[in-house]
Amino acid sequence: MSLSALDEGLAIPEAPAEHGTLETALRASRDAGRKLLVPYVTGGLGDDWADIVRAVADAGADAIEIGVPFSDPVMDGPVIQEASELALRSGATPVTIFDELRTIDAGVPIAVMTYYNLAFHMGHERFAQSLAAAGVSAAILPDLPLEEVGPWATAADAAGVETVLLAAPTAPDERLPRVVARSRGFVYAVGLLGVTGERDALASSSLVIAKRLKAITDKPVLVGVGISNAKQAVEICAEADGVVIGSALMRRVLEGVGASGAGAFIAEIRAALDAG
């Protein structure tokens, strides 16, 4: 292996040379001049969550991130936590969410975001194969650090599941090339320190981390955490290839806007990005 985990001496397997479904789609849209938009939807939240997925896809999403609820999240802010708790109380599990995903023909790639405990508990190979069987293109495990990604990444690669890695705004310059080299699908630039949630203004750190990443990789760079509205999405896309929109969308879903309201919100952001 040409990449090594310097901190612990653990080998980090190289990512496959060929692009997977998610990265191929995002690269094609980006290279055609489109700014990328990836909404986050909590899986298992209400009877209409699959309709919400379809609605945001129809509204112009380039891919969709499905959150698999976990009882002890470390990255999620109050809105996503509430959505996850409600989903868990209603009986949502990874299995029920994966079963539902099999029935959703969104027309865009699907990525799953959850925590490593679920992958570890189910077993790397089984979890990766379950994702692939559900039509999921990629996985985001935000609490799994680069130095420990090897066993999971090997299983994910074998199943054809792209491993999206996060780049923190505090990451030193020497670490970022290792993150982007192993990441597939896109590089998830974390816009600010702290948990997910809406902010009144765009954090300056989000622009900085996007610029740092764009300087060292041609992989799609999307910024998430703290992107709250269309204006902020346009602002961050001056540096980044696109945005991940989570809390702002899920707050509206919790308020009861339904699939049509969720689609309208994403359509508003899509229009703003297209207008530049």
TrEMBL record:
EC number of the protein = 4.2.1.20
Listed A to Z, the keywords are: Amino-acid biosynthesis, Aromatic amino acid biosynthesis, Lyase, Tryptophan biosynthesis
| Protein's pathway | Amino-acid biosynthesis; L-tryptophan biosynthesis; L-tryptophan from chorismate: step 5/5
The record ties this protein, via Gene3D superfamilies, to: Aldolase class I
Which reaction does this enzyme catalyse, per its entry?
A: (1S,2R)-1-C-(indol-3-yl)glycerol 3-phosphate + L-serine = D-glyceraldehyde 3-phosphate + L-tryptophan + H2O
A GO CC annotation given for this chain: cytosol
Question: What GO MF annotations does this protein's record show?
Answer: tryptophan synthase activity
In terms of SUPFAM superfamilies, this protein maps to:
Ribulose-phoshate binding barrel
Kindly report, in one word, the top-level EC class recorded for this enzyme. lyase
Pfam families in alphabetical order: Trp_syntA
The record, for CDD domains, names: Tryptophan_synthase_alpha
InterPro entries associated with the record: Aldolase_TIM, RibuloseP-bd_barrel, Trp_synthase_alpha_AS, Trp_synthase_suA
Give the quaternary structure: Tetramer of two alpha and two beta chains.
Which HAMAP family does the record cross-reference, listed alphabetically? Trp_synth_alpha
PANTHER family on file: TRYPTOPHAN SYNTHASE ALPHA CHAIN, CHLOROPLASTIC, TRYPTOPHAN SYNTHASE, ALPHA CHAIN
What is the name attached to this protein's record?
A: tryptophan synthase
Species name for this entry? Answer: freshwater metagenome
